[in-house]
Amino acid sequence: MTLRLEAVEAAYGLSQVLFGITLEVPAGRVVTLLGRNGMGKTTTVRAVMGLVPIQAGRVHFGGRPLHGLPSYIVARAGLGLVPEGRQVFPNLTVRENLVATAANRRGAAEPWTVERVFELFPHLAARARSLGGTLSGGEQQMLAIGRALMTNPALLILDEATEGLAPLVRSEIWACLERLKQSGLSILLIDKHVGAVTRLGDHHYVLEKGRVVWDGTSAELRTRVDVQHRYLGV
Amino acid sequence: MNWLLVVEQCLNGLQFGVMLFLMAAGLTLVFGIMNLVNLAHGSLYMVGAYLATAAVTRTGSFLAAVVFALLGTLAIGMLMEVLALRTLYERDHLDQVLATFGLILFFNEAVAIVWGRAALFTAVPSALSGHIQVLPGIRYPAYRAVIIVVGLLVALLLYVVVTRTRLGMLIRAGASNRTMVGALGVNIRLLYTVVFGFGAALAALGGLMAGPIYTVLPGMGEEILIQVFVVIVIGGIGSIRGALAGAVVVGMVDTLGRAFLRPMLSTVIGPSAADNAGPALASMLIYILMAAVLYFRPQGLFPALRG
Amino acid sequence: MSHSGLVGVYLSVHTPRYCTYDAAFAGKLAHPDFQAVRDGLVAQGRHVATLAPDAIVINSCHLIATFPTVVDGTPRHAGVLTAQEAPELIHGVAYDFPGDFELAAALVERGRAAGLPCTLANDVHYPLDYGTVMPVVCYLDRAQRIPVVPISVCLSADLDESFAWGRHIARATAALGRRAAFVASGSVSHKLVRGPERWPGAAEQELDHRLAQLIADGEYDKAWAWLRSVVRQRQLRHLADVLEFRAKPKEASVRVLRLMMILGVVVGLLAGQAARAAETVKIGFITSLSGPAGVIGKHMKDSVELALDHLGRKVGGLDTEVIYGDDQRKPDVGKQLADEMLKKHKVNFVSGIIWSNVMLAVAPTVTGAGTIMVGTNAGPHELSGKMCNELYFTTSWQNDQTPEAMGKYMQDQGINDVYAMAPNYAAGKDMINGFKRYFKGRIVDEVYTKLGQQDYQAEISQLRGKNPKAVFVFYPGDMGIQFLKQYAQAGLRDQIPLYSVYTVDETTLPAVGDAALGNFEARYWSPDLKNEASQRYVADFKKKFGYTPSYYGAQSYDGILLIDSAVRAVKGDLSDKKGMVAAMRKADFKSTRGKFTFNVNHTPIENFYLLRAVKGPGGETEMQIQKTIFENHKDAYYHECPMKW
Ligand SMILES: Nc1ncnc2c1ncn2[C@@H]1O[C@H](COP(=O)(O)OP(=O)(O)OP(=O)(O)O)[C@@H](O)[C@H]1O
Ligand SMILES: [Mg+2]
Hints:
The complex is a heterotrimer of chains A (234), B (307) and C (645). With 307 residues, chain B is mainly α. Chain B has a domain at 11-218. Chain B has eleven helices and two strands, in the order ααααββααααααα. Chain C has 645 residues and is an alpha/beta fold. In chain C, the strands form five sheets. In chain C, strands 15, 16, 17, 18, 19, 20, 21 and 22 form an eight-stranded mixed β-sheet that branches. Chain C has a six-stranded mixed β-sheet with strand order 10-11-9-12-13-14, with helices on both faces. Chain C has a four-stranded parallel β-sheet with strand order 1-8-2-7, with helices on both faces. The longest helix of chain C has 28 residues, at 250-277. Mean pLDDT of chain C is 85; it is low at 235-256 and 274-278. The A-B interface holds A 49, 51, 70-72, 74-76, 80-81, 83, 87, 89-92, 96-97, 99-101, 103, 105, 131, 133, 147-148, 151 and B 166, 169-170, 172-173, 175-177, 179-188, 304-307. The site of magnesium ion has 5 residues of chain A, from helix 1.
C-alpha cells in the first residue's frame, strides 16, 4: 500500500504552511522527510493524519482517498502515528498505554501484542505497571512506538523519534526501526540525523518553507553536499 | 450524646452522600474528559425522576420504571450531547455555562408542559417501604438502605470500569490527550457521546431513587446540583475517586452538621445564641469545607491525573 | 356627561370685532361676514348655560408668561379691563366673576409633579387680558357666575409641553371631582397681521374647520400631528427662527406660535380625556412561576385569570393588562422585576408574592415609587407593624396569625411536649413566634432548617430521639411534600401526630397523597368554605383549570377583586391614589373568605379554622374544615403600625 500526497496545501488559520507537497511512500519502503526547523515536516504529517485541515491537494493510501477525513478514520486505514514529542498518556500505565487503543482492524496474521512490544523494547517490560508520565524520554519514545504498533499499522509515521535522546537509546531505536523495516513495514520518517537516515531510508524528500525542494535516494543525497548544506544545515 | 443516634445520622449522611455521588460521577467525568461545565446535569436527574414516575404509574412496576428511566435518560443524554453540547467543547467555560443554563430552562419547561407544574406523587415501592434492623437499636428505612447499597455498588462498578476496562482506559486517555486518542484510531466523538450518556444515566439513577423520598417537580435538579458542584470541587475535578470521597464527606458533614451542630454549639455559646447561629452555620458548613479544601488543597482531595 | 372631569371644550375667539359689548349684546358687526362667528359664540354661551359646569378653565393667547405657565387661582376676579393691545376698542369693561382656588392649586400641583415649570397666582391685581375676559363676559357666561381659572400661555414652553398641560388639566379636574369646561381662546386662522381688512380668508378658515372636525371625530392623534405640521408650514420650524426674527417679523411669529400652543393644550386635553376614557389598568403580578415553587405560582396566576374572567376582563371597568413576573423565590430577582414593572411597564398596581423575604424586598420598592402594592400571600411581621404603609395592602394574613390559631388549638387541647420545625427564613421565625404566642405548653425543641431543603431524614432522626408528643411544622410548597413523605416513611405518622400550617394544602396534596392523612392544619380559607363567593370561585376554577384551587389562589383572586373595587371607587382615575386607598380600606368586595375588614395596618381581620386531611368521597386525600378556632382575629403587630385612619 502506497501513501501518496499530491499538491497538499495546509494552513494554521490564516498562515499557510504547506504550499503543494507531493510525495510518495511505496509499500515496504522507508521514506524520510528532511528539512530545517519550521519547514513544515510535522505539518505534513498532521495533514496526512487529518489533524490539520487540508486546504487543497489529495492524500491517498493504497488508492483510498484520506483527505478531509477525521483522524480516527485515517488511523484505521492503517496509519500508525508516533507523534512529535511522544505524547504518551501520562495517567495510564505502560501496559494500559499499549492496550487502550490497540486494534487489528485489517486482520494482520501476526498482530502485535503487549508481549511482542516488550520483546522489541525489553526496557518497557520492566516498567509495565508504571504510569506513562513517570517514564524517561527514551522509554516514552519506545512506548509511543509500541502504542502505534499495537494498532497494527501498514505504515508507521515517526516524527522526530530520536530527538533529545542519549546516543545509546538513539541507536537502540534505530536498530528497532531497522527490524521493523525488515519485517516489511512501510515507514515515513522525520529526523535530523542525516547519517542514520541515509543508512535506513530508501528515498528522501527535503522540505523548505512548505515546498519539496529536492528528493532522491540515499546515494544521491550522500553525494549532494550542497543540498545537505543549504537545506539541512549540515 | 446517644451513640445510636450518631450511627443513624452517619447512615443518613452516607445515604445523602451516595445520592450526591451518583450526580457527581457523571458531572465530574464530563468535566474531566470533555472539559465541559454542564449545568444541565441536574435536568437529567429530573428527567430520570419524571420518566420513572411516569413508568411506575403506567406499569406499576418499580423495576420496569428503573429500566425505562435509565435507558430513556441515556438516550436523551446522548441526544443532548450530539445536538447541543458537542459544539461547546472548544468554547470557553462561560459560553458553556450560558448554553447549559439555557438547557435547564428548556428541560424545566418541557417537563412542565408534559407533566404539569405540580409535584408528582410517587411512593416508595411497597417491598421497600418497611424498616430494617441495621444494628440492635437502629431501625433504618429499607428504601434508604437500598439507596446506600445501590450507590456503593455503582461506585464499585464505576471504579472497575474506569480502572479495569478498555473503556475506562480510553476515558482516562481522552482526559489527558483527546487528539492522540483520535489519531490512534478511536472515534473520540462517539466515546464522548457514550460517556455523556452514561453520566446522564447515573444522574437519572439518582433522580429515580430520589423521586419517592423527595419531590418530583420541575426544577428539582437545581437544588442538588449546587451541592454536587461542591462535591466535585472538594473531591477533585475529573476524578471518580474524588467524587466518591467528596460526596461522602459532603453528605456526612451536612447531615451531622444539621443534626449535632446546634446542640454542640449550645454547650459552648449558650442555647439561645446557638438557636440563631446553629441553623445558619449548619447550612453553610459544606461551603466552609469547600473553601478550606480550596485553600489547603486547591486541586481537591483526589485530583485526576492529567497530562 | 354627568360625571366629573371635562364636560365641555370650546374653541372661542376674542377678536375685538366680535368681543365688544356692542358686537356681543347689540349684534353690531362691522361686516356681515362676521355674523356666522358671532352666532357660533352665542351658541357656545347657550351650551355652557345648559351644561352648568363647576368651573371654566380658560387659556388665552394674550395671557402671556415668559418662563412658567401661570395658573390664576384668585378666588374673585374683579376689575376694569382696558385691553393692552386695543385700548381704542376695549376700554373700561367692568368684570367680576368668581375664581376656583382649589382647582387652580390642583392644576399647579399636578404640573409641578410632572416637572412642568408653573406658578399659582392668587392676587386680585394679577392682570387679565381681553382674550380671557371678553369671551367670558360677552358670550360664555354673561351672568358671570361660573368660577373661572385662567391659564397663561408660556413662551418658553414648546408644543409638547402645551400638549402635556392639556392632559394634566383633564386629569386634575377629574381627580378633584369638578365638572369643568375648557375654553381655548384663539384659533388656527387667527392671523396676526396688520390691517383688519386682511381677515382670514376662506382657505384659512378651512384650517379651523379642519381642526374642529378632527376633534369632533375624536381623531386626537391626527389632530396633534396635523397641528405640528401647521406650525411647521407657518414658518415656525424652530424657535431659533422666532427669536432671531429673520424671515418674519418677531411679533407675528411669536403670536402664531402662542396660538398654536393653546391649541396644543386643547388637543392634549382631549387626547388626555380620551386616553382616560380608554385607559388601561396595568397590574404587575409577581410570583414564583419556575422551579419547585412554580406550582404555587400557577395556582396564583390561574386565580388572577379567573378573577379577570369574572370581571369581564375589565378591572374597575377599564381594559386590563396583567404582567406576570417570575421571582424564582429570590428576593433580588423579585426586586428587579418590581423595578422593571414600575419603570418600564408603568404598572398601576403590583400584586402577588409568595415568600416573605421576597416581599420584604419588593414592597418597599413598590410603595416607595408611590404605587399600590397588594400582597396576596407573604405576611412578614415588619410590613404589618413598623414598616406598614398607606400603599401596602395584603389580602392574605400576617404570618403569625395562622400559627397563632394552631397554637391556640393545641393549647386548648392540652397538648404538651411539642417539637417545632420551620425553614430558616423570615416567615419561618414568624410562624414559630406566632405559635408560641398562644401555645404555652412545653416545647421540646425548636429546629430551623435550610430554606428549600430536600432531605429531612437527619432532622427526623433527631426528632424521634427526643420522643415528643406532637410535632408542629411550617413547610410550605415542595418542602412540605418532602417533609411529610419522609415523616410518613420514617413510620412516625401513626406515632406522633403532626400539626402544621401552610404545609398540607391543595398545591401539595396531589404529591403527598396518603402521607398527609390525619394531619391537622390551621387556615383562614379552604375550598370547602361555605359562602357564595368562595363556592363560585372553587366551582369555576375547577371547571376552567381542572384542579382544586388553594388558599394561595383564593388570596390572589381576592387581590384582583380588591383592586377592582378601588378602581371602581375612583371611577377609573388611576392617578387618584388617595381615593383608591380609601376605597381599599373598606374591603368592599365579595371576598372568598366572606366579609372581612382591614385592620389599621391594612392586614385582614379574619376567621381561622382547624382543618384536617381526610379521605374525600373520591378516595383522594382532601382538607376539611373541622371548627372555627378564631373569629375576627387580629394580628399581633398592628399596634406598632403608626398609620391612623
Ligand atoms: N499550531 C500552529 N499554529 C500556527 N502555526 C504553527 C502551528 N504549528 C506550527 N506552526 C508553524 O508552521 C510552520 C511549520 O511548522 P512544523 O511544525 O510543521 O515544522 P517542522 O518542520 O516540523 O519543524 P521542527 O523541525 O521544528 O519540528 C512553522 O513556521 C511553525 O511556526
Ligand atoms: Mg516537527
